[in-house]
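note to self: dont lose this again. the chain is below, predicted strucutre after it. 453 aa total, dont forget to put it in the shared folder this time
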Amino acid sequence: MPIHAPGPRPLPVLGTLLHLRRRGLLLTHLRDWRRHGDIVAYRFGPVPGLALAHPEALRHVYIKHRTNYIKGLGVESLRWLTGQGLFTADGTLWQSQRRMMAPHFTVAATRNYAPAMLAAIAEVVARIQARPTGAIFDMQFEMMRFTMDVICRTMFSMSVADGASRLSDAITETLHWVGVRGLQLLRLSPRVPTPANRRFVRALAQLDEFLHGLIRARTDSGELGQRGDLLDLLLQATDPESGRGMSHQQLRDELVTVFLAGHETTAVALTWTWALLAQHRFARDQLDAELAQVLAGRDPNVADLPALGHTRRVLDESLRLYPPVWVNPRFAVAADEIEGVPLAANTVIMPMIYAVHRHPDFWPDPERFDPERFTAAATHARHPCAYLPFGAGPRVCLGMNFAVQEMVLLIATLAQRFHFSLAPGQQLDIDPHAGTLRARDPLHLRVEHRSGG
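---
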């Protein structure tokens, strides 16, 4: 017999929205998961929702029955920001866009972006090198600046110093609006001039002005195809099946999506990685040993990536504990049943990646930082949906190769030159209302210059 999922008692009209808004969906669900189990029922006003925390349930949604689970209502707030970009599009539009963009994000294509990444890394090294040993600085700010520099260099052939840095605040504002609005019963259009909506509209206008301006400048310059950056490639991209290219509006939506993924989520991942290394001497010592053996004092390049196994495992374990995209919602087209639990059509499905990455059946001592969880043998033996910081199935993150290459190169470069420790009084709490898994506070680290670095 089918069973019904347990969950907090819903209120009339509001459902469980008040229950979720007190501490945010992430932190509230962690408590509810421990109380109710791997499938927890919520109600967003009249709309039913299920939060899933078991890998087999996620395989059902992302892979086995993926045609029944679209982005739909689950990303309605995000669509005000990204439009019909790859992350939020569905159906034939998504398929066409994926076909046009996929060739530019393969492992081989990603290697072409290495010079821009290494140039941005050199800027980070110079800024930290200028600080004396013992100086305290905000690593979160540095990582946000670095990832924005990388995405500006690879997408637009410009550095962050050319004026794009002002967009960081705009991105933070828009993502905060998306996160808060997702738990509101009455989701007003941004055109309704509430204080929060006015801030969102201003920030969105900044992003649009920047991106549309770059598109117009490139198409009007007569230089199309000469720079070889992502903007060039996407302006010339065509769907191999239909032969159609992107409209300027669709291009804008894809640029926002890539900009957010390439800047925000990568910076969040790197920030948590440095916080973890600062707390775990054993992992740092293993990292030092690998870098000494593989690099012997020289800076890394893409040819070194296969040999930097422990560096990659440090990153993977950081992404397990702190996945920047901690929930990746779907919307049920038709009624279905997941792990014996029936669900109606139009149910919001919330795969809780943060909880899945801590499921004790798949991750012994789940709160412990242990990069050796990601040896080849351990990874092969694990459930394929127990670890999915980049998603799973056909909609796995298109920029995964790009992000991993960028992050491993940065970690290897900085770790060889510097050691970092937490500043006194540093807090490491999650911001429960951010759109990604941001830390609530800046990450203040103390820098120590390594000999020869």
